[in-house]
Amino acid sequence: MFLHVFATVGKCLVVFSVVFIAFALSFHVLFRAPSYSVSLLLKL
Q1: Count: domains in the chain
Q2: Range of the domain at 14
Q3: Which of 14, 16, 33, 37 is the one with CA 20 to 30 A from 25?
């Protein structure tokens, strides 16, 4: 019984960690500081 519960908790932790990392990476890409050198080149 303990191993069954432990396996279920382990599966849930794997799924939640993958979802958490996916959200963290998406927000990192969305809210990173803009690169001003690239934006200056685009204005020229």
Answers
A1: 1
A2: 2-43
A3: 37
